[in-house]
Write a structure and sequence with these properties.
The chain has six helices and five strands. The protein has about 160 residues and is an alpha/beta fold. The protein has a five-stranded mixed β-sheet with strand order 2-1-3-4-5, with helices on both faces. Helix 5 (about 110-120) packs parallel to helix 6.
C-alpha cells in the first residue's frame, strides 16, 4: 500500500461535490453541493427535478428546447439547483446552516446566492465559474467569503 498524500479539507470536500454531482438528472451540467460546518457535513444537494416530478432525462430540457443560454432565465427550468437542494435538505431535517461553508462544483447563480446569504452561509468555495456577475456582487456585499478552489500539488494525488 502506498502512502498517498492526505488531501486538505478543501480538497476533501470538493471531491465530495463531484460524487454528489453524479446524482444530477440535469441534461446540461451536473452540479454538486456540500454544506459543512466545523469540518462536518451538514447537507448535500445536486441539481435535478423536485421530488415526485419527472426528471429532465424523461421530460426533456426546456432550456435546450428554447435555446436559453446558461446563466439566464433560471425560472425556465424543471430542476432545482444543487445549492437550493442542500439548503432545502437543511430545512426539511431541521439543520441550521448559519455560519457554515458551501462547497460547490460551480459558482452560485444569483438566485442561489440570495438563498445562501439568507441561510447564513459565511463562505463559498467553488471550482468553476458561472456567468452571473450579480451573484458575485451580492455575495461580496453581504460579506460572504467567496474562494475559487485551486488544488495544491499535494491535493492532486
Amino acid at each position: 500500500m502506498t502512502d498517498a498524500p492526505r488531501p486538505s479539507w478543501d480538497a476533501y470536500f470538493m471531491e465530495l461535490t463531484d460524487v454528489v454531482a453524479k446524482r444530477s438528472t440535469c441534461l446540461r451540467r451536473h452540479i454538486g453541493a456540500v454544506i459543512v460546518r466545523d469540518k462536518r457535513i451538514l447537507t448535500t444537494g445536486y441539481n435535478g427535478a423536485p421530488a415526485g416530478v419527472k426528471h429532465c432525462s424523461e421530460a426533456g430540457c426546456l432550456r435546450e428546447q428554447r435555446h436559453i443560454p446558461s446563466g439566464e432565465r433560471h425560472e425556465l427550468c424543471r430542476a432545482i439547483h444543487a445549492e437550493q437542494n442542500a439548503i432545502i435538505q437543511g430545512a426539511l431535517h431541521g439543520i441550521g446552516l448559519g455560519g457554515s461553508t458551501l462547497y460547490c462544483t460551480n459558482h452560485p447563480c444569483v438566485l442561489c446566492a440570495k438563498m445562501l446569504i439568507n441561510a447564513g452561509i459565511k463562505k463559498v468555495v467553488y471550482r468553476c465559474d458561472y456567468p452571473d456577475l450579480l451573484s458575485a456582487e451580492l455575495l461580496q456585499e453581504a460579506g460572504v467569503d467567496v474562494v475559487q478552489f485551486i488544488p495544491e500539488k499535494s491535493d492532486q494525488g
